[in-house]
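Reproducibility note. Readers wishing to regenerate the assembly model reported in the main text can use the exact inputs given here. Chain order matters: entities are listed in the order in which they were concatenated for prediction.
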Amino acid sequence: MTMTREQREQLILVVLFTAIACVVGFYLVVQPKMDEISKSTDKIEKQKAQYDNSTNTIALLPSIVAATNVDEVTVVTEEKRFLNTEESEFAMIVNDSAAKAQMAPKIIKWNILDTPFGTSGKYAERSVKVGGAMTYHSLGKWLAEMEKMSPYIRVLGISVKRTDSYGTNGTEVTLGVLVKK
Amino acid sequence: MNLPLIEINLSEEFRRKKGGLTMPQKQLPLAIGGAVFFVLLVVGGVWTVATIRNAQVTSIEQQVRVLSNEVAIVVSTLGVSSKLKEQIKELENYRNDRVEMSERLHSVASNMPNKVYLTDVTYDATDPAVRRLTLQARAFGSDVDDANIPPRLTKFFVREPLFSNAFSSIRYDPENKLLDEWIFSIVMERTNTVVTKTVTKPAPRPKPRTTATLKD
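Running the prediction on these inputs yields the following structure tokens for the assembly.
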């Protein structure tokens, strides 16, 4: 089975063309497609992971909603215990508690510049300065009345200076009241 | 010997006439055909796989997109939940950090020894980092000096949880002596950094003639 030179040349040419066609085909068609497949596979993996993640997150929703509802009720309940800090309303609260303590303090300074409280940005502390002449005993009774009214009122400052020998003192009390911003 | 002449003609035309194409000439188109088929098979396979993968990507992306709305709801609910938890914590902190001064003033008054009276009471908690209660008092009597009643009063405050829980440092500051009267301060302090309880004792002095006792 011998081939002529002409046949051999034809065969070589055909093989050469086929090889070139294969190489060109590989680089122009197969390789880009292979890259595309590889990228798609990665994308599928990522999307699957995201899908699983999303499914797991969604599964938590009922418990998160339940916990949020409980927290919401707690916050609303606690905020109902805040004192009304409108000037006239708060003056009434001070007067009522003073009457119970048998004394007559007066609001001498109303601080409308609230100090932010905490990091949630929801609350601030409003300070009110109350003063008058009173005995040490009546001061204690009045503070007890004020502190009983709400857990969201606190004493920020007290200044008691003896003014006479009958036990009456010049007193200034700074009260801090938690308010919603 | 008379040998017959054998006609040998190896030309292409002769062979074609004689017995058709030779083997390589028959297999060549087949080989080319096979190669083309193989190439088409590979390209087609790759193409098909790529198309299937793209379809899968599109499908799963769509599913994730559908879920993303629900995920957004969960995320926003989580945000609300964490905000509420933060608020609850702040409210708790406010309640827990409150020092009920009425109780403390009552305790100060009811535990003052007979020979001691308060002159000034100052409390300052306006700065969240520092809380300070200063009780300025006078102790009188020839038997009182700064080695007995004032330091013992200070010790009482250190032992009393009402004060020791609210103030980390309780100290006695002797200020002055006027005839038989001792002027002194008891300073109670709490800073966010210092967590010590100290009773500052004065320098050793001569023993008092009598020992005064505290109420309670």
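We highlight two features of this model. Residues 5-80 of chain A form the longest helix (76 residues). Chain A has a mean pLDDT of 87.
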